[in-house]
Automatic annotation (TrEMBL):
Residues 38-298 form the Sulfotransferase domain. It comes from Dipteronia sinensis. Belongs to the sulfotransferase 1 family. This is Sulfotransferase. InterPro entries: P-loop_NTPase (IPR027417), Sulfotransferase_dom (IPR000863). Gene3D superfamilies: P-loop containing nucleotide triphosphate hydrolases (3.40.50.300). Its EC number is 2.8.2.-.
Length: 303
C-alpha cells in the first residue's frame, strides 16, 4: 500500500511500518549489507523525538577528552552531518558506502523499527540508544516540520485535522508510533545492556542524570575529577536547545550544503507545546489510544 502523506512525500507499507518512499532503497540496502561492529553505537529514534539532541549529546560525551567544547566539530557542523542517518544519508546515496574511514566508535542514526533492524545489529555487541517522546508533542513537532520542509505551497493533506486523522490510524513516517516504541521498550527490558531506552521528557527534566546515564551505558563514565570540574554540566549546557539553536551553523547553514536548512531541527524544544494546538476532542482521542496501546506494557509518557 502507498499513501500520500505530504506533497512529494509518500509512505509505503513495508515490513509492517510506513516507510517514506524516498528512503526505501537506502533502507533495503542497509538491511542487506550493513555489517555492525561490536563497538558501533546506533542512535535510534522515532522522528521528531529529539534525534538532533541525542546525536549532539552522544557525540560530545564520547569525544570529551579529544577536544574542548569550544573546538567541538558541533560548533561548525550540524549534528545530522556529524552523526549521519545510516539509511537515509549513507546507503540511500550508495548501495555499499565506504564506512572504513569512520572514526571508532562509529555513531549512526536511524528511525528503523526494532523488528526491521539488520541482523548484524542484533548479533553483535553493538549498542543501541533509543529515544522517543510523548505522542502529543511528537505529532505537533512533526506537523511543524513538514510545513517548514514543504514551504507554503503545500497542497494535499496538511491541515492539523487531516494529519491527526492519519496518525490516529498509525499512518505516519515510521509509524505506527505504538509499534515503534513498544518494539524497543520490550527489547530494552530483555536486553538492558544492549538497549538504553530514553524519553525526551526525562532528558528535559533531569539532563545531568541522563548525561551520566548515557556515559555509563557507553562504558565511558565520568571520573570523580570530571564531576568535580563540572564536565557533566558543561556538556549538558553545550548540547542544550538554546546553545545548539544559536550556533551560527544551525542558524544559517544547510544540511550537507544543499539539504534542508539546519534551523529546521530547532523549533521550540519544550514539553507540552501540544496544549497550544490540540482540541479537547483530539486530546481525548489520543489519550484513549495511548491507554489502549500502552497500558499493558507499563510504558508511560509525561506530557
Ligand atoms: P519541537 O518541534 O517540539 O521544538 P528531531 O531532532 O528528532 O528531529 O526532533 C526535533 C525536536 O527536538 C524539535 O522539537 C526540536 O526543537 C527539538 N530539539 C532539537 N534540539 C534540541 C535540544 N538540544 N534540546 C531539546 N530539544 C531539542
Amino acid at each position: 500500500a502507498r499513501v500520500k502523506y505530504w506533497d512529494h512525500y509518500d509512505l509505503l507499507q513495508y515490513q509492517g511500518f510506513w516507510c517514506p518512499s524516498v528512503f526505501i532503497h537506502g533502507i533495503i540496502a542497509f538491511q542487506k549489507h550493513f555489517q555492525a561492529l561490536d563497538s558501533d553505537i546506533m542512535l535510534i529514534t522515532f522522528p521528531k523525538s529529539g534525534t538532533t539532541w541525542l546525536k549532539a549529546l552522544v557525540y560530545t560525551i564520547l569525544n570529551r577528552t579529544r577536544h574542548g567544547l569550544e573546538s567541538s566539530p558541533l560548533v561548525t557542523i550540524n549534528p545530522h552531518e556529524l552523526v549521519p542517518f545510516i539509511d537515509a544519508h549513507l546507503y540511500v546515496q550508495n548501495q555499499s558506502p565506504d564506512l572504513e574511514g569512520f572514526p571508532t566508535p562509529r555513531i549512526f542514526g536511524t528511525h528503523m523499527p526494532y523488528a526491521s533492524l539488520p541482523h548484524s545489529i542484533l548479533n553483535t555487541n553493538c549498542r543501541i540508544i533509543y529515544l522517543c517522546r510523548n505522542p502529543l508533542d511528537q505529532f505537533i513537532s512533526e506537523w511543524h516540520f513538514f510545513h517548514r520542509v514543504q514551504g507554503t505551497q503545500t497542497k494535499g493533506i496538511h491541515t492539523l485535522d487531516e494529519v491527526f486523522e492519519m496518525i490516529c490510524q498509525g499512518i505516519q513516517s515510521f509509524g505506527p508510533f505504538w509499534e515503534h516504541v513498544l518494539g524497543y521498550w520490550k527489547a530494552s527490558l530483555e536486553y538492558p545492556n544492549k538497549i538504553l531506552f530514553l524519553k525526551y521528557e526525562d532528558l528535559k527534566e533531569d539532563n545531568l542524570f541522563y548525561v551520566k546515564k548515557i556515559a555509563n551505558f557507553l562504558r565511558c563514565p565520568f571520573s570523580k575529577e570530571e564531576e568535580i570540574q563540572g564536565v557533566v554540566e558543561e556538556i549538558s549546557k553545550f548540547c542544550s536547545f538554546e546553545n545548539m539553536k544559536n550556533l551560527e551553523v544551525n542558524k544559517s547553514g544547510r544540511l550537507m550544503g544543499n539539504g534542508p536548512e539546519n534551523n529546521i531541527y530547532f523549533r521550540k524544544g519544550e514539553v507540552g507545546d501540544w496544549k497550544n494546538y490540540l482540541t479537547p476532542s483530539m486530546l481525548e482521542c489520543l489519550e484513549k489510544l495511548m491507554e489502549e496501546k500502552l497500558a499493558e506494557s507499563g510504558l508511560t509518557f509525561k506530557k
